[in-house]
Amino acid sequence: MTRFRLILSFVCIVLIVNFSLIVHFELEQKRELERVNQLGMDNQLWQFFQLSSEYARLREALQYGDRHQLDEINLRFDIYFSRINGFANNQVKLPSSVSKEALDMALLKPLVDYIHFGVEILKHDPINKTNWILLNQRTKEQQEAVNNLIQAARSHDSRSIDDYRKNIMYWGELRILLATTQIIILLLFAALGVYALWKTETSRKKLAEFAVTLQEARLQADVANAAKSRFLAHISHEIRTPLTSILGYTDRLLRKKTLDKEGRREIGYIENSGTHLLSLLNNVLDLSKSEQNKISLIIETISLKQLRLELEAMFNMMAKEKGLRFNVFFDDGLEIDLSLDAGKLRQILINLLGNSLKFTQRGAISLTLYGEYGVDCYLLHAAVVDTGCGIKAEDQSLIFSPFEQSKLGQLAGGTGLGLSLSRDYARLMKGDIIFSSQEGEGSEFIVTIETQVVTASVGTSLIGQSQQPSLMGRIILVVEDETINREMICGILQDFGATTLQACNGFEAIFQVKQHPAIDSIIMDYQMPQMDGMAAAGILRQQQWKKPIYLVSASPLEELQQEAGFVAFSGHLRKPFKIDELLLLLGKWQDNNYKQAGGLLDYQTAIHSLGFKFERYLALCQRGLNRVAELELLYKSALKQQELNEAVRYAHSAKGIALQIGAIILGQHWSALEVEPDYAVIAVLNQVREDTQKELDKLQYMPIV
């Protein structure tokens, strides 16, 4: 584009100069024409021809006149004399090619001498015969002088005409040349413009063709990605289903105290292999989602203290088996609850610690957790340091590339996906992973993510909770089309005291509920023949069955949440799962759970926190409960209209009001609903609020101390 502008500027300058020269030459030609016209007006030949004419008349008058009658001769002589006198006195412009002196000597002198001679002769009247003859003779001799003068004038006029013709031709040729040059330049410029337009049109067509090709390639890639995603989802479901029974039965066997040491070790190998296979499957699926920007965050409230205990329990034994020291350093400032995606944070730390454990043969591995307050967030940092083999300089650029491994990494095993996914997770949480490594000395990886501090500890995720609920006396319906998995889940529940019923599809589940009204909860698979789990749960909710229904599926939570029927479930568990996860899900909402929490209305703490007097607190508490009742109606309405974001907003507002007035149990219920809809919780909401209102009514009659 710059080159085109330069050429355009140059052409414009040339055209301007060309036009200026044409104007200049036009003015010069105009002046020349004016000069020639003036020359025509002052034509010298006319004066000389008049002189010749008067000479002829004078000669005729002398030839045929009478020397006794001199009037006519004197008249002609006077006229002829005036003509000669005009030339002699410069009254007539002389030829520029003849100087005045040359004219006087060569041309005018004979004529002037003749005039003087004639004047002397004509003084006498009459003229004697001798003088008359002499006058006629001298007059005849004037013919040559007159002819010479006229000839000189004609020569001058001829040269003037030649000069004029040459000047006119010169200026005309210059004008033609410049006009031709201008036309050529304009033609060249027009050709350049046509070429530029052709070039632009050609480029536009190429871009259009490229865009079409790119669109077709993108569509083909989208089709291929969609096919790949469907394939991976199908494979995931097909692999997770048998993995559920493999890991479930191994977990159940490992809990039996009658198992000897050798059997426990061999079953442990099976469990480790199954867990490794599950990890590979999860990594491949997450990589596919990352490539399509479909990874989403599942925000929950966690206790970092519990996360620390879980990581210590996971890696302490593994480090001891390799003769390594494993330490977790925990900043005192992290005795807080944070709102973040606990699953992805856990996976990042497990990947980093697992890599350190894999490549460290002696020394120690440490995890340091610390944090700091940012502008509008809390920055959580985790540093993993090891004394392993380190990373070569030439391999450091590859460690975050999927499926890329150094030679040492290939020998150690693995897919090469852990670090790539970990960095994707960190960046999804508005953070990153940086590292430094020295070959032969070890490596340090630092993770930074953005979180939010949860001021109230209500609703904290139960990571690492070891307390297991009792299922004694509970009747649980297990709905699963795979016989092996169904019997495995029933066996686990029976081990913990539950009575189980079985169904292999949604129709049988609805029938079992009608036949056994005493069923306390349902564990429902998603994909089943005849009627799937979501359809069955929706029908049961329409029939006003308000007890917990838990979904067990191989599909990820973010996909299930897109289904309209997901709101019918009280909780979700993804296949394969551990026994502790199943027990934790079932024990989440036991009967009278809210009455075991230690009081419905903690008015003393609320009064102290608000700084109110007792009477003012009672009024505020009543307004708060009324507002919570309104929010409860809005929450249920939003769920019916499938407006989950609005429902979460109402739950958040209700939780805040309940905690502010000291209704701790009510706040706990709303905190749980803020994370995900749970019909088991919704069913008891009204009762909890009414019980809280009763506690407030009792305070109205309490004596003020």
TrEMBL record:
<feature type="domain" description="Histidine kinase">
    <location>
        <begin position="234"/>
        <end position="453"/>
    </location>
</feature>
<feature type="transmembrane region" description="Helical">
    <location>
        <begin position="176"/>
        <end position="198"/>
    </location>
</feature>
<dbReference type="Pfam" id="PF00072">
    <property type="entry name" value="Response_reg"/>
</dbReference>
<dbReference type="Pfam" id="PF02518">
    <property type="entry name" value="HATPase_c"/>
</dbReference>
<dbReference type="InterPro" id="IPR003594">
    <property type="entry name" value="HATPase_dom"/>
</dbReference>
<dbReference type="InterPro" id="IPR011006">
    <property type="entry name" value="CheY-like_superfamily"/>
</dbReference>
<feature type="modified residue" description="4-aspartylphosphate">
    <location>
        <position position="525"/>
    </location>
</feature>
<feature type="domain" description="Response regulatory">
    <location>
        <begin position="475"/>
        <end position="590"/>
    </location>
</feature>
<dbReference type="InterPro" id="IPR003661">
    <property type="entry name" value="HisK_dim/P_dom"/>
</dbReference>
<protein>
    <recommendedName>
        <fullName>histidine kinase</fullName>
        <ecNumber>2.7.13.3</ecNumber>
    </recommendedName>
</protein>
<dbReference type="InterPro" id="IPR001789">
    <property type="entry name" value="Sig_transdc_resp-reg_receiver"/>
</dbReference>
<dbReference type="InterPro" id="IPR036097">
    <property type="entry name" value="HisK_dim/P_sf"/>
</dbReference>
<keyword id="KW-0808">Transferase</keyword>
<feature type="transmembrane region" description="Helical">
    <location>
        <begin position="6"/>
        <end position="25"/>
    </location>
</feature>
<keyword id="KW-0812">Transmembrane</keyword>
<dbReference type="InterPro" id="IPR005467">
    <property type="entry name" value="His_kinase_dom"/>
</dbReference>
<keyword id="KW-1133">Transmembrane helix</keyword>
<dbReference type="InterPro" id="IPR004358">
    <property type="entry name" value="Sig_transdc_His_kin-like_C"/>
</dbReference>
<keyword id="KW-0597">Phosphoprotein</keyword>
<dbReference type="InterPro" id="IPR036890">
    <property type="entry name" value="HATPase_C_sf"/>
</dbReference>
<dbReference type="InterPro" id="IPR036641">
    <property type="entry name" value="HPT_dom_sf"/>
</dbReference>
<dbReference type="Pfam" id="PF00512">
    <property type="entry name" value="HisKA"/>
</dbReference>
<dbReference type="GO" id="GO:0000155">
    <property type="term" value="F:phosphorelay sensor kinase activity"/>
</dbReference>
<keyword id="KW-0418">Kinase</keyword>
<keyword id="KW-0472">Membrane</keyword>
